[in-house]
Amino acid sequence: MADSLIEVRDLERTFTVRRRTGGLRRRATTVHAVHDLSFDVPAGEMVGYIGPNGAGKSTTVKMLTGILVPTGGHLRVGGLEPAVQRTELARRIGVVFGQRTTLWWDLPLRDSFELLRKIYRIPEPTFRANLDRFVELLDLGDLLYTPVRQLSLGQRMRGDITAALLHDPEILYLDEPTIGLDVISKGRLREFLRALNAENGTTLMLTTHDLQDIEALCDRVIVIDHGTTVFDGPLAELHRQGGSTRTLVVDLVDEAEPISVPGAEVRRVEGPRQWLAFPADASAAPIVSAVAASYDVADLSIQEPDIEEVIRELYARG
Amino acid sequence: MTAYGDITWLWVRAAWVYPGSFVMLVVGSMLINGLDFVGLWIMFANIDHLGGFGLREVALLYGASGIGIGIADTLIGSVERIGTYVRTGRLDQMLTKPVPLLVQVCADQFTLRRLGRITQAAVVFAWAAPVVDWTLLRVLVAVVMMASATVIFFALFVGFSCIQFWTTDASEFANGFTYGGNTVTQYPLTVFPREVLVSLTFVLPIAFVNWYPCLYLLGRDDPFGMPAWLQFCSPVAAVVSMALALLAWRTGVRHYTSTGS
Question: Do B96 and A93 make contact, defined as CB atoms within 8 angstroms?
Fold first, then answer.
């Protein structure tokens, strides 16, 4: 694929870790954080990059952005070699690390943005247009003159995303963008990212633990574990291969025998509460109506499959 | 360089949001540094000479190095904090920006607080100035001395801060050389044994900050019998130490980008 924006071939990254082996002796061991990793991302795609903790997600993103130097393999982003042409690449990418802010803690948002305008040498009209647009879309109007340290997590995240986009990057890397946000903020953020991709053609690479982020945004999922790709394809395919299930939690008015409805099976019963599993790619609607038609239901909720479980299943099935 | 100017200007403007606290900081630092010199003054109430140098001569040394470290500390003082930047992930953020890392680190949280230090040192220097028999060449040497002093402290700050790329808690160690070096330059080096002078010439070039050029300004022979041409070598020492510091910085950043987290 010659037209790939991101090109990863047999990428390697090892770390030397010194461990104490009793007393003052230390032994150096080599850890493969990323091993034999290959994938391509064409321009304009929205890719979910997922995997359990310590799978090598951050290490990959750090190599893609030029923060870390690969120890082997081939890596090109927009035709550039990230670690070598780091500052050149920086003008073309935006990075948001969920738990860390790129904003200046003591400065009001507006000043941080102004500083970024200068750092990226963004032409004044572009800057103004982008700022107005993001302020409106992300509802930042009232917050522009508040020092960053006084912002809530969700407000700060919106500020960070604006900061990463002011210079019209071709690629936006998002690391856990919705972590700690409430449901409404999550929804709005996803909507914003979708619009950004549709209107600007911005390529999105998203690392997350939240499968709903992926569901709402990504046509494609790359699953990485032990530093290498274990799955690369559409989300529905991942669910099918992983045989993942969603769970309908039913609170009945009274205790009852295990519920029997087509398409779902009871996994657990605890007093009036029952857990019904059904395939993740099936609709919950017919099951909910079947349950509601035959039983006295006090409350219902649906649990999404979690990523660790899907990956465990993926392995179990070989 | 424009990026440096833009970032620092923003911090100055941000500080002006609270002009009261800014003025207090500057005045406070001026007072503390003023007391510092009063200590020397009191010492001279009891003695006429320190290591063979009179009060005004010592004041000349004191003022010259104070101006140098004051300017260097103002321009790049934040570089001491790279250990914190590494720990908090701020350095990763900076690495994703299209401006050289050293520029970003030095300009971050720029403050004019040290103006107090520079002013105080300049006042002391001006007070001491009449002790010099000024000629055109001596004026030139004085100007070059201050520029070189700034660059040498600059290099010490950058060079020793680099250790924090390997061990993030080394800032105190670095302070020993930068601020420690400054303390040494506040006295005539004749109060130390010859070995100290030799190492401050060839190992850590702190003697070039003020000692050698001031000997020329005062028209004195070198009390240790070091060659007279060393009195003109401050710019050379500055360039060499800066080059070494930048090399250390590059190595440090490379080490960082290849170990990560």
Answer: yes
Q: Residue A116: name the closest of B15, B100, B97, B91 by CA.
A: B97
Q: In this structure, which topology does domain A244-316 adopt according to CATH?
A: Alpha-Beta Plaits (3.30.70)
Select the residue of B13, B98, B257 nearest A87 (Cβ to Cβ): B98
Give kind and range of the element (H or E) at residue A232.
strand A228-233
pTM for the model:
0.82
Whole-number Cα distances in Å, B49 to B43, B62, B161, B255: 10, 15, 37, 49
When scoring A106, A117, A119, A156 by the number of chain B Cβ atoms within 10 A, the one with the most, hence best to mutate, is: A119
Each residue's pLDDT tens digit, A270-290: 989 999 988 877 888 999 999
Count of structural domains within chain B: 1
User: What is the pLDDT, as a whole number, of residue A1?
Assistant: 45
Q: Which residues of A touch B (CB under 8 A)?
A: 15, 58-59, 62, 65-69, 71, 83, 86-88, 90-91, 93, 95, 97, 100, 102, 106-107, 111, 114-115, 118-120
**Which residues of chain B make contact with A106, given a CB cutoff of 8 A?**
14, 109
A284 C-beta neighbours (distance < 10 Å), count: 16
What is the domain range of residue B139? 2-259
Q: Where are the domains of chain A?
A: 4-240, 244-316
**CATH, range A4-240:** 3.40.50.300
Q: Do domains A4-240 and A244-316 have the same CATH topology?
A: no
Collapsing DSSP states into helix, strand and coil, what is residue A300? strand
Q: What is the mean pLDDT of residues A40-55?
A: 90
